[in-house]
Design goal:
alpha+beta, 5-stranded antiparallel sheet, 4 helices, 31% helix, 33% strand
Length: 138
């Protein structure tokens, strides 16, 4: 689904409210920011990504068509996207508690991590490999 810029702008209060993250590095030309919002009655987050190469609307629609076919319990659903200048805005379903940091660290004991044993590290690596294999073959 291709969203209209005005719909996204309205739901994010002109990209001023509910900012989730921002990252950039001085050695990289990419920057990314995301906002939590409600779009068409669904909790969502909008992820802004600077495009390295120009993307036109037909290419974006084709990519969305391919990506939206993936249905896996470990993948957050891509709801749609839109283009604005040199940026691509991806709209994902918001899943409460789907924060990787929260999954790897115990908020009650910040020094604990599931990465403390080799067995859990191997399990996480295996799970990631299965997810990448699924994405690659869907």
């Amino acid at each position: 689904m291709i969203y209209d810029t005005s719909e996204i702008s309205s739901s994010t209060n002109n990209f001023l409210s509910h900012r989730l993250s921002s990252s950039s590095t001085s050695t990289s030309t990419s920057t990314s920011t995301s906002w939590r919002c409600t779009l068409r009655g669904k909790d969502a987050f909008v992820f802004q990504r600077k495009s390295r190469t120009p993307i036109d609307l037909p290419d974006l629609q084709q990519s969305l068509s391919l990506i939206s076919r993936s249905h896996h319990t470990s993948l957050i659903k891509l709801l749609g996207a839109f283009l604005s200048g040199s940026y691509v805005y991806l709209v994902y379903e918001f899943v409460d508690g789907a924060n990787l940091t929260d999954c790897l660290r115990n908020p009650n004991n910040p020094s604990f991590t599931v990465l403390s044993s080799w067995l859990s590290r191997l399990q996480i690596a295996t799970d990631l490999a299965h997810g990448l294999d699924y994405i690659h073959h869907c």
